[in-house]
Amino acid sequence: MADIKEILSDMTLDEKIGQLCQYNTQEVVESTAGITGIDENLGLTKAQVDSIGSVLNFANAVEMREAQKKHLENDRNKIPMLFMMDVIHGYRTIYPVPLGLGASFDPELAYDCSRVAAKEASAGGVHVTFTPMVDYVRDARWGRVMETCGEDVLLNSRMGAAQVKAFQGDDLKNPENIATCVKHFAAYGGAEAGRDYSRVDISEQALREFYLPAYKACIDAGTTMVMPSFNTINGVPALANKFLMKKILKEEWGFSGVVISDYHAVDDFETHGYTDNRKENAKIVFENGCDIEMCSTVFFNNLKSLVLDGTFTEEDIDKAVLRVLDLKDKLGLFEDPYRGASDKIDADEFLTEENRAVVRRAAEECAVLLKNDGILPLSKDTKKIALIGPLADNKEIIGFWACMGKPEESVTVKEGIKKLLPNAEIEVAKGASYIWGENSTDGFEDAIKAATNADVVIMCVGEPQDYSGEGKSRAHLEMPGAQEKLIKKIREVNKNIVLLTFAGRPIVLSDVADDARAILHMWYPGTEGGTAAANLLFGDANPSGKVSMSFPKSTGQCPVYYNRTNTSHPKSIEDEDTYLPFHSNYIDCGNLALFPFGYGLSYSNFVYESLELSRNEMTKDDEVTVKITIHNDSDRAGKETVLLFMRDMFASCVRPIQQLIDFKKVYFEAGERKAVEFTIKEEMLRFWNNESQFVSEPGEFRISTGCADNLILTKSLVLK
Ligand code: NOJ
Questions:
Q1: Burial class of residue 203 in the structure, from the number of CB atoms within 10 Å of its CB (0-12 exposed, 13-18 middle, 19+ buried)
Q2: What is the structure's pLDDT at 31?
Q3: Residues 372 and 512 reside in one and the same domain
Q4: Which atom in ligand 1 lies closest to the alpha carbon of residue 133?
Q5: For residues 510-523, average pLDDT
């Protein structure tokens, strides 16, 4: 353990401020190498550059080592830099995008995947990952929905906490563990109209119930860092928002780790129209508890004068610096500034068979079977396969935030099927483009030819992997290009169509759902995507994913989500899909999602037989056991995610018509029948009331299972 107070006592104010500044590696490397880089770009002095505390994004462990070495030669205090990166769904071996991971409903799987990422990232020289992202989302137009685990707060909380535990392990000194930074605090997912960085207007009730709990779950799981979001909340940028940054994060939750701004967020205040000078930005942000500024120069240029003019004391600066030094110490950087970093660009830890096996399992367990009339699984004796579509033989299936993952290292669907069925005749045709605005039908002829005499047509369609992610909002959620047209043309010559859909978000499939006999949504599945697709199509794997975010019938429905409240009209879920005058329904589209939250089929046949409560009444101190008996009425073993929903029938604040309160993913042998148990406690029945408290109110609660919009086996529970 280093004596960080002793180190601090030797530092000048300028050097302390350096610890609170982070820049891109190119600038640091070039500058430390003596080439003018950062100085010219950002107007910083050599002394400032030498004192920098952390680095954002870098190529590999060799570059990291080089930069660290040069920095240590130049820094008078010999304080190692922290190297941070966005390791979102894998470092080099890539697993499905987080929205896909959410569809597994399996925090243990999230844990296993994150362990793979942690070990690889650590070998790549990473000390901190900007993950998990647990922004609550309801609008599939927002490109960043791919980074969350879905539209439910409980699901996001459990998946987020599992990721924190996996990345950080029990001891950050262990070089195979890296620190996490939960983001984006808070409510970035509420961006108006799904446009990235857009304003968020939100009630405290919505914030407390839906948006905040997942960040809190990650803090409770021990995340070392927090990143506030870019957006304004009720008119105030998150970083400037005292209610969020001070009252909630520091006072209520007692967060004592490091807070880092998002990229240039500190100098964005002017663009927002919030402040007109950067000294003011530095004052607001630092006062609000932001320790590190990412990439802009507001701290470097203003913190010192804020100390000199008496706004802050040097002790204020010290507290922030100590938090940063403490993190460095926890990571063991003072003992070994290169902790875990390989001395090779391609470390031995990358892409091992073991890692590939984990991400393959993940890709299989995250895929959601949206439709199946019995055509799937396909027989392995299938002779002639037409493999059509822009994603049929495409390596770009690893997803947007694939970090150091390389498309050329991924398995395409064609490669996956070829490996599984070496003797099958596979004819591949791209058929159409998946790029917005590229509507040429020139490829149709080849595709039709391939499909005409095939036993089955597997169509790999969707949106390009870079159509989701930061700054990737869409106003049209249908598949881009001439893909829908292509599907219809193929259907004229062959009805045995299986759609494999790829997207980083829910897409609109209404116009093609009837044209296909089966639809398997792969999300962006990662390095082993093609192998997983083949295993699922031909029955070596059994689909078990469930929809983590509602698939709209039409983009105009967005935001469409399951835990909505009833309006006074309509009165029931059934009413919502029929046009009735003077109802809050659309004239030209139903209200319900095409595939709602929690929906997903399997090759097993899970029959929900009964739901029993251990009692029908409870007091605030009681617990009630729920037993749901399920029979796997099939000759195939499989996994089923059992969802437990509740509805508080009447309350002083109108409650959602369905709300997930627990879930379990359970394995069933073929033919097995078993009861899955849950415990209901009073705290699960609470909500944020108009007097700013979490409370439960006496009255009737309905307890159900099934999936959203299709609740079954409902029982009544009365809270006394
Ligand atoms: C901006 C993104 O909003 C954030 O999620 C990311 O961690 C940082 N850039 C760093 O890359």
A1: exposed
A2: 55
A3: yes
A4: 5
A5: 98
Which residue of the set 139, 152, 262, 709 is catalytic?
A: 262
Quick: pLDDT tens for 607-658.
999 999 999 999 999 999 999 999 999 999 999 999 999 999 999 999 999 9
CATH at 688: 2.60.40.10
Residue labelled with tokens 């880089």: 37
Query: 343 and 368 share a domain?
Result: no
CA 638 to ligand 1 centroid distance, Å: 38
Q: Work out the pLDDT band at 574, boundaries 50, 70, 90.
A: confident
Closest to 366 (Cα-Cα) out of 498, 525, 501: 525
Output the CA 263–ligand 1 centroid distance in Å: 6
Determine the average pLDDT of the residues in 670-694: 98
The Cβ of residue 63 has, within 10 Å, a number of other Cβ atoms equal to 19
Residue 341 located in a structural domain: yes
Q: Which residue has the least CA distance to atom 9 on ligand 1?
A: 263
Q: What pLDDT score does 46 carry?
A: 86
The closest residue, in CA terms, to atom 4 on ligand 1 is: 262
Domain that holds residue 702: 604-719
3-state secondary structure of 266: helix
Q: What residues does ligand 1 touch, defined as CB less than 6 Å away?
A: 86, 130, 183, 262-263, 470
Q: For residues 186 and 634, what is the distance between their CA atoms, to the nearest angstrom?
A: 45
Helix (H, G, I), strand (E, B) or coil at 421: coil
Name the pLDDT band for 33 (thresholds 50, 70, 90).
very low
547 in any annotated domain: yes
Per DSSP bridges, beta strands 236-237 and 623-632 are unpaired
Instruction: Output the DSSP codes for 128-165.
Output: EE---B------TTSGGGGGSS-S-HHHHHHHHHHHHH
254 burial type by CB count under 10 A (0-12 exposed, 13-18 middle, 19+ buried): exposed
**CB-based contact 426:496 (threshold 8 Å):** no
Kindly state whether residues 347 and 368 are assigned to the same domain: no
Give the residue among 629, 573, 566 at the shortest CA–CA distance from 596.
573
pTM: 0.98
Assess whether 662 carries a catalytic annotation.
no
Task: Give distance in angstroms: CA of 105 to centre of ligand 1.
Answer: 25
Question: Which DSSP letter does residue 412 get?
Answer: P
pLDDT, tens digit, 9 for 90 and up, residues 71-129: 999 999 999 999 999 999 999 999 999 999 999 999 999 999 999 999 999 999 999 99
Radius of gyration of the chain (CA): 26
675 and 539, same structural domain? no
Which residues, in sequence order, are bridge partners of residue 241?
Answer: none
Which atom in ligand 1 lies closest to the alpha carbon of residue 183? 5
Q: What are the two backbone dihedrals, phi and then psi, of residue 659, each rounded to the nearest 5 degrees?
A: -145, 125
- Domain count of the fold of the chain: 3
Rounded CA separation 457/461 (Å): 12
**The pLDDT of residue 42:** 79
Q: Based on the fold, state whether residues 527 and 384 are members of the same structural domain.
A: yes
What pLDDT does residue 579 have?
86
